[in-house]
Q: What sequence folds into this?
């Protein structure tokens, strides 16, 4: 999952005190955004072009999924765009360890949902033919199911 790469970078930056919260927050926000968009994809939705974590979580809750445990991650939203355009520190306090832990929980949750989806249904039905007949179907039309 793409979100794991951003989380890995955030973990590395968190260990180095030379980097202020903008850098860690940016990569955590990116990890959360990508994980939420993956979750929407699992639910059959194409994610909107947005960096708003609140918007993505609201959309998930509109699909009757339990996302309440991840609302605290919304405080990472300011790191999405402002980081790219503002030179000064955003002045936002960030509990790096807590946000990393919560982001990991979100990624683990989405990964679990993806694995459940891969294993469902347990024994897949053969696909139904919906397209044009194949050459063999033209030769043996009664043997084909359409």
A:
């Amino acid at each position: 999952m793409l979100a794991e790469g951003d989380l890995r970078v955030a973990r590395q930056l968190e260990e180095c005190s030379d980097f202020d919260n903008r850098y860690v927050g940016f990569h955590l926000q990116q990890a959360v955004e990508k994980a939420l968009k993956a979750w929407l994809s699992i639910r059959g939705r194409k994610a909107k072009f947005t960096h708003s974590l609140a918007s993505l979580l609201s959309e998930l809750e509109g699909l009757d999924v339990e996302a309440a445990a991840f609302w605290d991650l919304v405080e990472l939203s300011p790191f999405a765009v402002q980081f790219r355009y503002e030179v000064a520190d955003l002045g936002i306090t960030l509990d790096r360890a807590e946000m990393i832990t919560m982001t990991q929980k979100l990624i683990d949750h989405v990964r679990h949902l993806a694995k459940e989806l891969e294993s469902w249904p347990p024994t897949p039905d053969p696909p139904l033919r919906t397209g044009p007949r194949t050459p063999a179907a033209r030769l043996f039309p009664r043997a084909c199911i359409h």
